[in-house]
Write a structure and sequence with these properties.
The protein is 22% helix and 27% strand. Strands 7-19-20-18-17-14-15-16 form an 8-stranded mixed sheet, sandwiched between helices. A 6-stranded mixed sheet has the order 1-5-6-4-3-2. The termini are far apart. It is an alpha/beta fold and 398 residues long.
């Protein structure tokens, strides 16, 4: 950051999707991290290349919000120079209950803008009674050319040396600080259901070899997954989402119909469908190893695990295929219009949408509503405390 960039005193008026905050200067929106709505901050402009908005970094808090707290991660605190603040805990300077208020605001604004009128965002629910630290069972650190190991600085690929990892599970943090002599690239640390941390080096240019299979649990059921494969990061997340999807499906699963679990991973929600009475289940996932695990994990049910891209799978189904219920858990970009249209064509009794991005969810809900679907219920869960991320579960019916 150079001294030639202008410095402005700004009033923070709201929160934006993505964990930054909103101010205005001479009619132009300015996106500012490390602030709280209601504050006045001194910020330095970092990007004035767009006419419609600028980006800035908070240098000093001039008038603090009553919701401001000392940052849970000392290395991310506003007292440090912006280029030395680590990323990954962009709401960690805000009281935990108010973080959830702000997340609800983000969801409501997304729904109002993209999903159409009449959907009220729910409260974002806590999933444990803790202080929002010590929950990350999976942490990725980076190794620079000098062998320095740590997280990236916010909005940067610069590795920061840290003395703490407060969001990590204690055993994961211990394993991180015990790392020695790593090659440049990335190191993943994973604490699966057995509690023993796996260290997975991913050096630059290295090929990903065969991985160890580990076990996780949800709803009292064990799921095999590659150590470096996808599983929810918060230890209560899989149980929470399994329960929410099960509650949404209750009474809506016809045992004689075919049910679809899309973007199914290792079969978590396919198992939820099975527990709700589905006897014919198809789970679709593009990662081959995940579908191999899914076939194993779903042995107790009449389930078929298909390795395919969801959009291609749906367009390849025979004309006239109908579904009982569809569960989908798409990536951050959402399902998109083509997938929503294909799900609509299956004429399912119900659709349960699990979302990790509020804007993508709202866009897809808007598409469903345009085809005659209603949002029957909507829940949101704070599965990523001290970050802007959260999960939502929507039930759609005709």
């Amino acid at each position: 950051m150079t001294s030639s960039q202008p410095t402005l005193d700004l009033d923070i008026t709201g929160i934006a999707h993505g964990g930054t905050f909103i101010a205005r200067h001479e009619g132009r929106v300015v996106f500012v991290p490390d602030a709280v709505p209601g504050e006045r901050v001194r910020a330095q402009i970092t990007d004035a290349s767009k006419d419609s908005f600028w980006r800035a970094e908070t240098l000093e808090v001039l008038e603090a919000s009553p919701h401001r707290r000392a940052h849970v991660w000392a290395e991310a605190d506003v007292s440090r120079a912006p280029e030395d603040r680590v990323g990954g805990a962009d709401l960690g300077h805000i009281a935990l209950d108010h973080q959830r208020v702000l997340k609800r605001q983000v969801l409501q604004e997304a729904l109002d803008k993209f999903a159409g009128a009449g959907i009220e965002a729910p409260e974002v629910q806590a999933v444990d009674a803790g202080d929002g630290t010590g929950w990350r069972t999976r942490v990725s650190l980076h190794v620079d050319a000098d062998g320095r190991v740590g997280p990236y600085a916010a909005r940067s690929h610069r590795v920061i040396d840290v003395a703490t990892l407060p969001l990590a599970r204690p055993a994961v943090a211990d394993a991180a600080f015990a790392l020695r002599a790593q090659k440049p690239g990335r190191v993943d640390l994973v604490e699966p259901g057995d509690g023993r941390v796996r260290v997975l080096p991913r050096p630059e240019g290295g090929r990903r070899g065969k991985q160890e299979s580990v076990y996780e649990t949800a709803g009292g059921r064990r799921f095999a997954v590659d150590a470096g494969g996808f599983w929810q990061v918060h230890p209560h997340a899989a149980d929470t989402l399994h329960q929410a999807v099960g509650d949404a499906l209750a009474g809506r699963v016809d045992a004689d119909a075919t049910h679809f679990d899309l973007y199914g991973g290792v079969g978590l929600f396919a198992a939820t469908l099975g527990e709700q009475g589905a006897s014919d289940i198809v789970t679709v996932e593009s990662d081959r190893r995940a579908t191999e695990h899914a076939q194993q994990n779903l042995a107790a049910f009449d389930a078929q695990a298909v390795t395919a891209r969801v959009d291609r799978f749906l367009t390849g189904l025979p004309e006239g295929t109908r579904a009982g219920a569809v569960v989908l858990d798409p990536p951050r970009a959402g399902a998109g219009r083509g997938v929503v249209e294909s799900i609509h064509a299956l004429d399912p009794e119900a659709v349960v949408y699990v979302a990790c991005d509020p804007v993508a969810l709202a866009r897809d809900l808007g598409t469903f509503r345009g085809m005659g679907w209603d949002v029957t219920s909507l829940q949101a869960f704070d599965l990523f405390p001290h970050s802007h991320h959260f999960e939502a579960v929507a039930l759609l019916s005709r």
